Amino acid sequence: MWQPDGSEVIDQPAVAIPLAAATVRYLRESCEDFAEVLECRRLPSGRMEIVTFELRVEVPQRPVYDVRSRETVSVCFVAGRESAPGIVVTREDFPDTPHQNIVPEGFPSMLCIDDRPWQDVRSGYTASELVTRISHWFAKAGQGELHGDDQPFDPFFGYSSPHQVILTSDGMAAMDAGQKLNVWTTDENRRFLLVTSFEADGFPRQVTNIHVVQVDVEPQQMKRIRRAPRNLPGLVNMLMDRDQTFVDRLKKSVEDWFEGGKRDDDAKWIFCVLARFPQIHPRTGVVGATKPMAFLAEASPGQIGVALGVLDHNDSSHGTDLKYVRRLFPRTDIGSLSKFEVQVAQVHMEMDADAAARITGHEAADRRRAVLVGAGSLGSTMAELLTREGFFEWTIVDDDALLPHNLSRHTLNRSHFGRLKAPSLAERLLSIRSDVAPKAVVENLLDEPISEGLASAIDGAELILDASASVPVSRFLSDRDCRARRVCAFFAPDGGSAVLMIEAADRTTTLRDVEAVYLREVLINPSLETHFEAGQQMRYTGACRALTSKIPTSRVGVLTALIASGISKEISLPQPSLRIWSVDGEDAVEAIRLLPAVTARSIGEWKVLIPEGLRAELAGRRAAALPNETGGPLLGLVDFEAKIITAVHAPTPPSDSVGKPTSFVRGTIGLRKIIETAEKRSGGQVRYLGEWHSHPRGASSAPSVVDVSQIYDLSLISDIDGLPAISLIVSEIEIGILVGSVQ
């Protein structure tokens, strides 16, 4: 049992700290079958009470670790619940297991039974939970199940230093290469010490009163650390046990400092040993490098050199400006370093893609090359969110510059006024993660021909994300012959909805296909009736075209976050996806998710796209009308340049339409209003394409004489606008397609 100096034995009823008293009561009243209170103690200050009990443990026949059937456990309770109870085992031969805290030399073993932050759980922490966790710890230790295969095996130090170390990515790379480091501080109190490579840009040069010695232990030499050193001799011995060259390295570091003409007069120095200890995973046996540990001493290199026997104080009357001189006959005396206490400082690693992915709940980082077209409010926010989650290596394409009114919804700031958005956004992403490797292309994608640089970026990309809010850009990207998977995201005109369209990974379903399903959904889903209604606009200058939409920044943030979340979830799946999110006046979100499926048919020089939903609807309406024929107007898109006709919607036919077993005559009452309503609801994107009708049972989809005459008449009407006409013929097993145009 643990009986620290100065502590006094107290009776069980005298235990005063609430959780300690509750634990004594719980052990006495509810745990008599497997636990017995042996002793209670209190420190003179009254700030700590220690409850020691014997725990009976279920030990397997062949325990992985030397866990005994009876273990003595001391639990240390701190008054005020400022810190979690400490679980102490004083048995000298207690095994070296995972999940033990690293404690100073001379302290007994301390178990780690809970990895949750104490501040999060202390309000509801009970004696039964405490005892149960201790009991489970011993049971799992015997079975070798303390440590999961997927858990990193990093020891935990009780941090004792008021300083913390931040190691940047380039600083870590410099350590890997054995190169010189640059250390600087963020404030006068030197709370944070930033370690970068010596060549890193954007950081101050070496701070003269911080000295760093870096140590890398070879994996074959490693042992798990159980005790933290209290002073420099303890640190030296710990490192010498793993790296026999450490003392020589320490002496050389001091000598290099001395040869550089460094001074330490009237300076408060920090001597830092930054060490990395590769670890063997206790279950898999895999060797992995742990993050560096920082050991700090309040000493200058000169003071260390004198104690180490490398330097001497300059007591002569010569060279009075030199505080130290090189010792003529160096001697190594590790014991002389005992006056320098060592503190353990917390080390923070700069976030890279892997860390970003882990922190945000993703299995792995996604380092695919992505081209972002459009660096506006959506593109900038979306790219920043995905960068913070470990996604993509970015190339940003935009030819626009940042204006003052952009700041209401853009991630850039007033220092970027008048600067080009693409390189400015690239700089911002780089400031978040140094491994994101962003590039910028200042160009309008629709300016033909595109530059070689832009063509190379697009053709070399694995993903293309269109955030330009431009239908022509989206279609240009969809039609370009390259291997990249395309993604398109945009807001509805009133800022109340967000849309995400993702192609199939193998591009068997393209953005054009997904767009067809999207427009169809807008026309048939009652909840999207106002989807394309224009929102409020304002002029940001006196020019007639200087308009911007009035959309709350918070709304943009919500919708962009949904888009980024959708990309992070869908982009690893092979199938295409259509996502629509709508936010109402009460901030409730309605989500629509569809799996786009489209049939493509080539008719002469034209390609005709028909969404699977439309095909199923026409087949259903045919079956419902039997034995009569049915039909009606057909709406959709025509891209004359790309020679693509997309049918998306077949409105209910006018009320004066007549269907018979061998014919169908579409009426005219309200037809104009039906078409105009659909055009408005789609934001002016769909138009009248032609007609569709069904054939009776037993008839094929081959056109009749009447059908040929009809497509001829339709083509004459459509030719007024220079467009073709289309007629769909729905039979029992297929859909026939007629395309007519005036030559």
Description:
Residues 361-485 form the THIF-type NAD/FAD binding fold domain. It holds the Pfam family ThiF. Residues 612-714 form the JAB domain. InterPro entries: JAB_dom_prok (IPR028090), Prok-E2_A (IPR032865), ThiF/MoeB/HesA (IPR045886), ThiF_NAD_FAD-bd (IPR000594), Ubiquitin-activating_enz (IPR035985). This protein has 743 residues and is of the alpha/beta class. The chain has four domains: 8-146, Ubiquitin Conjugating Enzyme; 157-350, no CATH class; 364-594, Rossmann fold, CATH 3.40.50; 598-740, Cytidine Deaminase, domain 2 (3-Layer(aba) Sandwich). The protein has 17 helices and 39 strands. Strands 1, 2, 3, 4, 5, 6, 7, 8 and 13 form a nine-stranded mixed sheet that branches. An eight-stranded mixed sheet has the order 23-22-21-24-25-26-29-30, sandwiched between helices. Strands 10-11-9-20-17-14-12 form a seven-stranded mixed sheet. Helix 9 packs parallel to helix 10. The longest helix is centred in the C-terminal third of the chain and has 18 residues, at 553-570. The chain is elongated, with a radius of gyration of 37 Å.
CATH topology of the largest domain: Rossmann fold
- Helicity level: 25-40%
Query: How many domains comprise the coordinates?
Result: 4
- Radius of gyration (Å): 37 Å
Mean pLDDT: 87
| Biggest pleated-sheet summary | 9 strands, mixed
Q: What percentage of amino acids are in beta strands?
A: 25-35%
Low-confidence stretches: 537-547
The level 1 CATH classification of the largest domain is: Alpha Beta
Number of strands: 39
Shape label: elongated
Architecture per CATH nomenclature, i.e. the level-2 architecture of the largest domain? 3-Layer(aba) Sandwich
Structural class: alpha/beta
Counting copies of identical and different chains, the oligomeric state is single chain
Question: How many helix segments?
Answer: 17
Domain THIF-type NAD/FAD binding fold: 361-485
GO molecular function, one term: ubiquitin-like modifier activating enzyme activity
Domain JAB: 612-714
Pfam families: Prok-E2_A, Prok-JAB, ThiF
